[in-house]
């Protein structure tokens, strides 16, 4: 897809956004969550009624905001995703509109097409092989427990956390994913994050603060790290540093599902290998878009719009919700609002 085609598609998206829809363009609270002390099972707020999750699993997610399902994605599928990623690194495959990122510690002069140069791929919805992840029946079976039956794939990533250079730039500050998303309600959004190999504290596993999904969206900004910070690696500026933390040690194929308000991050990679994971944020198709201008999310909108303007020729006055709608893909059920 060239820039002219991208512009044409964006005009179609803008046309859709211009049509009246329930709740469109109206700011709503980031979460209808109750305080931790007011949760009484079985009044479930974050999970949907079906026969997939056990009562114990539902209670765990309701209380903690995340749930790990062991050995969910097959070795064969993970190998296919790994092979495709390596083809992309070598320049053999160039999906349109896909965003590749490299660690801030790597100088432009060092660029050689290889795994070393790409620390993250975003927006792989136009790569049929990688996007298979978002349509795997075993993934969607669990996603439906959080979003309901009509499901949109909203944001895709393959993370290739590099061996740290010594500056600790491979770590990701504690943050909430909702900071990046212009759609609500938060309780109908979930991330599926699958380990592509053994992941522990040595190579930078996820660290979560259980129960923080019950709070509100907090202000984010770049942390003041001496070694530098990667683009759009925002961190929460105000959180309780004494909050309990859980480090998620995962095996290949294990998948964690978590709420977009859950505070989480990841440590630096102390090994000589590259730590890989593949993920997608899903939302119910009956979610609605909001305008983030004048909110703490405006910093994310400004940087992302500048990026897609420079890379893909999007208009400079594009909004975060327009970019989001352009990227969204229906993966199950019917498209309603998003």
Automatic annotation (TrEMBL):
Pathway: Lipid metabolism; fatty acid metabolism. Gene3D superfamilies: q2cbj1_9rhob like domain (2.60.120.620). It holds the Pfam family PhyH. Keywords: Dioxygenase, Iron, Metal-binding, Oxidoreductase, Vitamin C. Its EC number is 1.14.11.18. The keyword Oxidoreductase applies. It catalyses: tetradecanoyl-CoA + 2-oxoglutarate + O2 = 2-hydroxytetradecanoyl-CoA + succinate + CO2; butanoyl-CoA + 2-oxoglutarate + O2 = 2-hydroxybutanoyl-CoA + succinate + CO2; 3-methylnonanoyl-CoA + 2-oxoglutarate + O2 = 2-hydroxy-3-methylnonanoyl-CoA + succinate + CO2; hexanoyl-CoA + 2-oxoglutarate + O2 = 2-hydroxyhexanoyl-CoA + succinate + CO2. Its cofactor is Fe cation; ATP; L-ascorbate. It is an enzyme of class 1 (oxidoreductase). GO terms for cellular component: peroxisome. One of its GO terms (biological process) is fatty acid alpha-oxidation. One of its GO terms (molecular function) is metal ion binding. Belongs to the PhyH family. This is Phytanoyl-CoA dioxygenase, peroxisomal.
């Amino acid at each position: 897809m060239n820039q002219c085609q991208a512009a044409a598609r964006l005009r179609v998206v803008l046309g859709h956004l211009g049509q009246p829809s329930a709740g469109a363009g109206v700011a709503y609270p980031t979460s209808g969550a109750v305080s931790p002390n007011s949760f009484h099972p079985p009044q479930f707020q974050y999970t949907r009624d079906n026969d997939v999750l056990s009562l114990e699993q539902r209670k765990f997610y309701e209380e903690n905001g995340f749930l790990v399902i062991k050995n969910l994605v097959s070795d064969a599928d993970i190998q296919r995703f790994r092979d495709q990623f390596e083809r992309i690194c070598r320049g053999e495959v160039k999906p349109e509109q896909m965003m590749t990122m490299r660690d801030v510690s790597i100088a432009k002069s060092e660029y050689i097409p290889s795994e070393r140069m790409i620390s993250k791929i975003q927006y792989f919805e136009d790569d049929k092989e990688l996007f298979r992840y978002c349509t795997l029946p075993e993934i969607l079976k669990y996603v439906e427990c959080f979003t309901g039956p009509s499901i949109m794939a909203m944001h895709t990533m393959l993370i290739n956390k590099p061996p740290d250079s010594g500056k600790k730039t491979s770590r990701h500050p504690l943050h909430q994913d909702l900071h990046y998303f212009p759609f609500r309600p938060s309780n109908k959004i979930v991330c599926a994050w699958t380990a592509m190999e053994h992941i522990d504290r040595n190579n930078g596993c996820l660290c979560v603060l259980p129960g923080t999904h019950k709070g509100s969206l907090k202000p984010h900004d770049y942390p003041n790290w001496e070694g530098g910070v990667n683009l759009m690696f925002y961190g929460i500026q105000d959180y309780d540093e004494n909050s309990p933390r859980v480090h998620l040690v995962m095996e290949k194929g294990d998948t964690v599902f978590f709420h977009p308000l859950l505070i989480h991050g990841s440590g630096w990679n102390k090994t000589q290998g590259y730590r890989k994971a593949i993920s997608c944020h899903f939302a119910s198709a009956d979610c609605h878009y909001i305008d983030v201008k004048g909110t703490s999310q405006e910093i994310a909108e400004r940087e992302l719009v500048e990026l897609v303007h420079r890379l893909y020729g999007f208009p400079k006055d594009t909004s975060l919700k327009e970019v989001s709608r352009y990227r969204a893909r229906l993966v199950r059920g019917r498209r309603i609002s998003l």
